[in-house]
UniProtKB/TrEMBL annotation:
PANTHER family: NADH DEHYDROGENASE [UBIQUINONE] 1 BETA SUBCOMPLEX SUBUNIT 7, NADH:UBIQUINONE OXIDOREDUCTASE B18-LIKE SUBUNIT. This is NADH dehydrogenase [ubiquinone] 1 beta subcomplex subunit 7. It comes from the Eukaryota. Residues 1-32 are annotated as: Disordered. Residues 7-31 have a biased composition (Basic and acidic residues). Accessory subunit of the mitochondrial membrane respiratory chain NADH dehydrogenase (Complex I), that is believed not to be involved in catalysis. Complex I functions in the transfer of electrons from NADH to the respiratory chain. The immediate electron acceptor for the enzyme is believed to be ubiquinone. InterPro entries: NDUB7.
Length: 122
């Protein structure tokens, strides 16, 4: 552990769980599990913004990119699998948000409208 890092800071909404020798994290509200550990992501220097459920695919992609000098026609399989994983995460979040909006609309529809009668002299 580095002295300047806060050891208690974990990704929001995650729980650590023992799976054999590796610690796997679960992200609430998501069907995908975190496969890459925090230590692996730190070692691979994955930026914080990219430490999601697809980080385990980003690590080999970045290694391949570095080895192939970022040539766009190289590492196609790795890039495709990473982009597909990210797409599935976005679609999952969109469906979750759609369900939340539908539930809010149902709740709003159940609330009665309060009608204020007009005064007789108006």
């Amino acid at each position: 552990m580095h002295p300047h890092r806060n050891p208690g800071r974990e990704e929001i909404g995650t729980q650590r769980r023992e799976c054999g020798r590796k610690k796997e994290m679960e992200v609430e509200g998501s069907s995908k599990k975190m496969i890459a550990t925090q230590e692996e992501m730190v070692e691979a220097r994955v930026p914080l913004a990219y430490r999601d459920q697809c980080a385990h695919l980003l690590i080999p992609l970045n290694k391949c990119r570095q080895a192939e000098f970022y040539l766009p026609w190289k590492c196609e399989n790795e890039r495709h699998s990473y982009e597909k994983c990210e797409y599935e995460l976005v679609m999952e979040r969109m469906l979750q948000m759609q369900k939340i909006r539908q539930e809010q609309q149902k709740a709003d529809a159940k609330q009665p409208l309060i009608l204020v009668p007009k005064p007789a002299n108006a």
